[in-house]
């Protein structure tokens, strides 16, 4: 099988070694003939250059970003390799998606979906139908990495749906107070989605008014992605969501079902042929029979995937419900985390309920279950279950009065945003005291369900926020018993969380380390823990800054127990950080109080998070290097004093949180909904 690979790159500084990592993925599948075209959109096209066996490079076309690069690359690729079975479209950010399409990709899986002309990629969704140019948009394939069969590519034609001229009918060339023209053929909901994504939710979010050209270009890329998805759904009855078919068991079931359907389709087509008059029957070729079978197979496969996943979720929910039923205590709470994130809050929340005598049942995704945030906790009333979000939703619907309370720790399923986990009308009284939800960002509750929960004060927040009175502040700062830490001779700093500039300012870190090294200060190290998006360590910092990537919770806890200071890297000069402490908290706060490890943090954020100069190394704007130098120079007595003060504050926060929880439970038990 021959697969063309159209790799578009533009910013090699932002995504270094992306091409080399792509080649490593391809090398793991030697049974596939990969013909790779490396398209550099940062330079114009001149000619196609051969760089090795089945390897080519060429300049690109960045007029419509990767879409125009792929269009040009496909034109050249079809000349160099006219016979192919499929095309892998990929850009230099292909590893940003979780899970990456290329993780766990097998030759069998690839051949299967190419044979059936089924596009393969990570599929995203909107909560409801929206429109562009009167074309319905609901779900689409994520375009940083996806695979199409050769037949689908030929039917698809031009990769670009929205060019510069069409974009001008949607958005003015210069900002005039409105993001979109009044007559723009983009539905209002989709306009709001674009603005919210680019200004608040995207990992590289920005102030739109300050970078209008980026807003225009990014909007055009989003529209091209959505419209490409719409066209693909017209061509193919089924688009395979990589995240929903990654398990071997699902693939085996899919193959078995397809085999049965193929036999059924063949028999039906053969029966139709045998019923024809002899004259016509003799003119019907075997190809016509095969085509009839293929058409019937396509129609049946369209509904098969969802039904199959629902079936698996049903059986999974039955198993988990049976386990819960066997471990019911006098008082019971069920925690549901439907995503592969936010598992770090679960130990702290569970701890408070355990203190109140509850049996705690925690449902989490496979990845979080394997990473095990409860590795340092052992309690006979703590029960942990592995559950996909579909099965978790069935369990949520079936919970009865034997459960006192259900806590949804994230209301939206990030891997599949159409899945509003709570539903339009949350079942507040399914459990004895109903449902509460954790609000991670107090301005972001869009569904009717969350609005209802906010109105009824059925909300948990990670800390108290000014002006928000409807939540129960419950700080999840317990991760198991920890010992007070002694400062290391070589000071160890740690940064924890998604490696994104929108969350942490790494330029701040690099500038500070540059100054320390220039002044001869070398008795320190910095470890960065978290998924790496737009982060590269300059070579001059090798030996002083290292990246551990995403680690399981045991390794994370070990790093924190061994570290002297936590670096939140928040910066008041970065507008993307202004909401911290106002409408959302930082994981650094939870980890500092949980592991009794001081932060080095700017005064502005220290006050918002409840730190003082006695429990953290605080500094004013622009003097971060001096704060690091102070932390390094701290003697054992001074460091122990910081730790003692953190321990005192943590104990106070524990007490306040526990009382807040008691008050909320009493109100839910006795007060009106």
Description:
Helix 14 links the parallel strand 13 and strand 14. The strands form 4 sheets. The chain has an 8-stranded mixed beta sheet, sandwiched between helices. The chain has a 7-stranded parallel beta sheet with strand order 11-10-9-12-13-14-15, sandwiched between helices. The protein has a 4-stranded parallel beta sheet with strand order 18-17-16-19. Helix 10 (286-325) packs across helix 13. It is α/β, with parallel strands linked by helices. It has 4 domains: 2-244, Spore Coat Polysaccharide Biosynthesis Protein SpsA, Chain A; 248-314, no CATH class; 327-473, Rossmann fold, CATH 3.40.50; 491-634, Rossmann fold, CATH 3.40.50.
Largest sheet: 8 strands, mixed
Q: Helical residue percent?
A: 40-55%
Distance between the termini: 61 Å
Average pLDDT, all residues? 84
Strand content: 15-25%
Shape: globular
| Oligomeric form | single chain
CATH C-level name of the largest domain: Alpha Beta
CATH topology of the largest domain: Spore Coat Polysaccharide Biosynthesis Protein SpsA, Chain A
Query: Could you list the spans in which at least 5 consecutive residues all have pLDDT below 50?
Result: 246-253, 276-287
């Amino acid at each position: 099988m021959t697969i063309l690979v159209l790799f578009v790159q533009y910013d090699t500084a932002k995504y270094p070694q992306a091409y080399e990592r792509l080649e490593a993925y391809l090398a793991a599948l030697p049974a596939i003939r990969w013909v790779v075209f490396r398209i550099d959109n940062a330079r114009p096209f001149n000619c196609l250059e051969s760089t090795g066996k089945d390897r080519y490079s060429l300049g690109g076309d960045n007029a419509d970003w990767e879409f125009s690069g792929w269009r040009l690359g496909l034109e050249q690729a079809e000349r160099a390799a006219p016979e192919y079975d499929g095309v892998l479209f990929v850009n230099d950010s292909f590893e940003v998606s979780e899970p990456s399409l290329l993780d766990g990709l097998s030759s069998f899986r690839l051949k299967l979906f190419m044979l059936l002309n089924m596009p393969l990629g990570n599929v995203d969704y909107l909560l409801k139908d929206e429109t562009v140019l009167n074309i319905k948009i609901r779900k689409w394939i994520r375009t940083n990495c996806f695979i199409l069969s050769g037949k689908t590519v030929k039917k698809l034609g031009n990769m670009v749906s929205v060019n510069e001229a069409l974009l001008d009918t949607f958005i003015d060339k210069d900002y005039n107070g409105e993001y979109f023209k009044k007559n723009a053929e983009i539905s209002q909901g989709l306009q709001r989605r674009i603005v919210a994504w680019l200004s608040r939710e995207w990992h590289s979010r920005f102030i739109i008014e300050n970078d209008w050209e980026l807003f225009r270009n990014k909007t055009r890329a989003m529209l091209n992605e959505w419209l490409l998805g719409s066209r693909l759904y017209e061509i193919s009855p089924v688009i395979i969501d990589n995240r929903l078919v990654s398990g071997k068991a699902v693939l085996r079931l899919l193959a078995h079902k397809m085999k049965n359907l193929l036999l059924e389709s063949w028999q039906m087509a053969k029966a139709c042929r045998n019923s024809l008059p002899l004259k016509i029957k003799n003119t019907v070729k075997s190809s016509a029979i095969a085509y009839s079978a293929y058409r019937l197979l396509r129609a049946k496969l369209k509904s098969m995937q969802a039904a199959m996943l629902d079936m698996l979720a049903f059986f999974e929910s039955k198993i988990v419900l049976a386990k819960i039923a066997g471990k019911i205590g006098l008082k019971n709470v069920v925690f549901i985390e439907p995503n592969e994130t936010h598992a770090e809050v679960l130990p702290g929340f569970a701890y408070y309920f355990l203190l109140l005598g509850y049996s705690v049942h925690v449902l989490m995704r496979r990845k979080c279950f394997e990473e095990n945030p409860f590795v340092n906790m052992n309690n006979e009333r703590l029960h942990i279950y592995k559950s996909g979000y579909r099965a978790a939703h069935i369990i949520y619907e079936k919970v009865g009065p034997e459960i006192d309370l259900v806590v949804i720790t994230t209301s939206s399923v990030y891997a599949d945003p159409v899945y509003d986990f709570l539903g339009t009308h949350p079942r507040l009284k399914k459990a004895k005291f109903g449902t509460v939800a954790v609000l991670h960002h107090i301005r972001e509750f869009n569904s009717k369900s969350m609005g209802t929960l906010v109105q009824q004060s059925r909300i948990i927040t990670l800390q108290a926020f000014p002006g928000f009175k409807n939540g129960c502040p419950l700080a999840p700062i317990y991760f198991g018993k920890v010992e007070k830490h002694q400062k290391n001779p070589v000071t160890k700093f740690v940064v924890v969380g998604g490696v994104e500039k929108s969350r942490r300012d790494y330029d701040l870190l690099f500038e500070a380390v540059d100054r320390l090294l220039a002044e001869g200060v070398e008795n320190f190290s910095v470890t960065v823990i978290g998924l790496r998006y737009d982060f590269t360590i300059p070579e001059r910092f090798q030996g002083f800054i290292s990246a551990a990537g995403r680690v399981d919770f045991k390794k994370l806890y070990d790093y924190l127990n061994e570290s002297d200071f936590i670096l939140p890297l928040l910066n008041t000069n970065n507008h993307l950080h202004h909401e911290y402490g106002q409408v959302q908290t930082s994981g650094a706060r939870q980890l500092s109080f949980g592991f009794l490890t001081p932060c080095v943090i700017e005064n502005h954020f220290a006050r918002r998070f409840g730190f003082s100069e006695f429990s953290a190394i605080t500094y004013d704007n622009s003097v971060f290097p001096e704060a690091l130098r102070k932390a390094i120079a701290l003697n054992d007595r001074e460091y122990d004093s910081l730790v003692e003060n953190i321990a005192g504050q943590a104990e106070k926060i524990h007490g306040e949180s526990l009382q807040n929880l008691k008050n909320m439970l009493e109100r839910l038990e006795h007060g009106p909904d």
